[in-house]
């Protein structure tokens, strides 16, 4: 993980002040862990900080902690800590992902308080704790940091539009009684494309679900933050950033710092250079292959998998499809590992004869592919994606347009923004959020993305965003300046705490 160039300026030579410490708390899932690790790397690269990455023992066995391979890529001034496991036996077996995560966060607060109270830079000494940075689920802990006199900044691992929609949730909860999916008018947020109520994050779609109340309460706690650090950049969300700055100056919300994009430069996982899909891509013409992957947690139903397969076959376009086990109950079933049903091979759920009929045109691989390397390959010309923000930024870094296929969490918000405001993505014309996207819609959307006029416009936008993303962290880039601004606030806080302790 990381970039080829130092993401922050090196402090001037001479006597340096003792390093202040930043504690970062990541919720489970690649969408949280990977950008949080990248934030830690950039924090310590700034030259005046050390950092501790914190995660939860409850989720470590599911691969949602900080893996040793990831930690090995980070500087020694970044350490890792794991909060002890807390009981979840009282939760129903079908509790939503968000309910499980937020319950762990809430029940881990005593252990987190102890960690924050005793935190110091690796090796001891230093300037004390400069900031506590939880992600959007960990914001429950902002009361602890305030109690301890430590500035708290929420790291939004997704985009500013998604954050703004979450901040608006308590107002929607207060002023409406119907399900959000039944709202008669779009939700209009300053600087953002209008959202249907049905496009708001998944846990908000059922007021009777405990996850709904968890999320509304969590959104209220965001206002305790001293600021938001957001994994986005000006060219991606210029209007939203400008509007949010006005709201912050007016005292409506804490300030937001657009410091992204944080995207991997190589995939995690072993033997990526030898993966057969890369060898297959080497044999394909430039920009001829559609890459199909729904992230580490996204899951299709059995029927939807069959329709997607038939649509890909009917389109006649080359494809590389990362196939995971289907689930007819949960679109995020792969997040904590889904059941394998009657087979240990996800390809066995594809239509009979599909793999044989499409041999030479397409390649279906089981469970995993080195996504960063795939997207960067010259043969890849499009990406069918769940619109998870990590995957989106990886597509931006590679200059690859998308076919938006959101499944859970805030992915529908992302899809609306990417398609209607940014122009990076197309959507299947049926937009069947609760139904099945038919094979005809799949074939038409794939063809439009790969060879149609709208697809050509999306490819041009992808090229523009790739250049803008690189410029955002240049010496005078907007994201670098935003990062330096928030780091400056942390230095001031650390200096005050150091004086108070002396």
TrEMBL record:
EC numbers: 2.4.1.-
Q: Kindly state which keywords UniProt assigns to this record, in alphabetical order.
A: Glycosyltransferase, Transferase
Keyword check for Glycosyltransferase, yes or no: yes
Q: Which GO terms describe its molecular function?
A: glycosyltransferase activity
UniProt signal peptide: none
Q: Which InterPro entries match?
A: UDP_glucos_trans, UDP_glycos_trans_CS
**Entry-linked SUPFAM superfamilies:** UDP-Glycosyltransferase/glycogen phosphorylase
What domain of life does the UniProt record list for this protein's source? Eukaryota
Which protein family is it in?
Belongs to the UDP-glycosyltransferase family.
This chain's protein is named Glycosyltransferase
């Amino acid at each position: 993980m990381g970039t080829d160039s130092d993401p922050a300026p090196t402090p001037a030579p001479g006597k340096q002040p003792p390093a202040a410490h930043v504690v970062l708390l990541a919720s489970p899932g690649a969408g949280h862990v990977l950008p949080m690790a990248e934030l830690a790397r950039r924090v310590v690269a700034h030259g005046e900080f050390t950092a501790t990455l914190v995660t939860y023992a409850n989720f470590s066995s599911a691969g949602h902690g900080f893996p040793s391979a990831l930690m090995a890529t980070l500087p020694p001034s970044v350490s890792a800590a794991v909060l002890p496991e807390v009981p979840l036996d009282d939760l129903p077996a079908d509790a939503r992902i968000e309910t499980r995560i937020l319950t762990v966060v809430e029940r881990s607060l005593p252990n987190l308080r102890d960690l924050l109270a005793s935190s110091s830079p690796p090796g001891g000494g230093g300037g004390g704790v400069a900031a506590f940075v939880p992600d959007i689920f960990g914001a429950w802990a902002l009361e602890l940091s305030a109690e301890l006199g430590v500035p708290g900044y929420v790291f939004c691992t997704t985009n500013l539009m998604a954050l703004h929609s979450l901040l608006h949730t308590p107002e929607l909860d207060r002023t409406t009684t119907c399900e959000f999916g039944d709202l008669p008018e779009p939700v209009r947020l300053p600087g953002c494309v209008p959202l249907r109520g049905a496009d708001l994050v998944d846990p908000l779609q059922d007021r009777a679900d405990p996850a709904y109340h968890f999320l509304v309460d969590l959104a209220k706690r965001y206002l305790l933050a001293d600021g938001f650090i957001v994994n986005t950049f000006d060219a991606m969300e210029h209007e939203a950033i400008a509007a949010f700055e006005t709201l912050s100056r007016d005292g409506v919300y804490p300030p937001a710092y657009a410091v992204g994009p944080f995207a991997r430069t190589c995939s995690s996982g072993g033997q990526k250079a030898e993966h057969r899909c890369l060898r297959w891509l080497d044999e394909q013409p430039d920009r001829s292959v559609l890459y199909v992957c729904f992230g580490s947690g996204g899951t299709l139903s059995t029927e939807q998998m069959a329709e997607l397969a038939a649509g890909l076959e009917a389109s006649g376009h080359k494809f590389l499809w990362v196939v995971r086990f289907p689930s007819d109950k949960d679109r995020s079933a792969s997040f904590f590992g889904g059941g394998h049903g009657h087979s240990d091979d996800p390809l066995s759920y594809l239509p009979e004869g599909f793999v044989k009929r499409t041999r030479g045109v397409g390649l279906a691989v089981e469970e995993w592919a080195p996504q960063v390397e795939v997207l960067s390959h010259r043969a890849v010309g499009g990406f069918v994606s769940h619109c998870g923000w990590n995957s989106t930024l990886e597509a931006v870094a590679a200059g690859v347009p998308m076919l938006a296929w959101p499944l859970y969490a805030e992915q529908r918000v992302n899809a609306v923004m990417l398609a209607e405001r940014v122009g990076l993505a197309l959507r299947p014309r049926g937009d069947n959020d609760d139904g099945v996207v038919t094979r005809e819609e799949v074939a038409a959307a794939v063809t439009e993305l790969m060879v149609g006029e709208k697809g050509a416009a999306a490819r041009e936008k992808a090229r523009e965003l790739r250049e803008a993303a690189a410029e955002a962290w240049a010496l005078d880039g907007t994201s670098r300046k935003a990062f330096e601004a928030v780091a400056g606030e942390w230095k001031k806080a650390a200096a005050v705490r150091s004086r108070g302790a002396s």
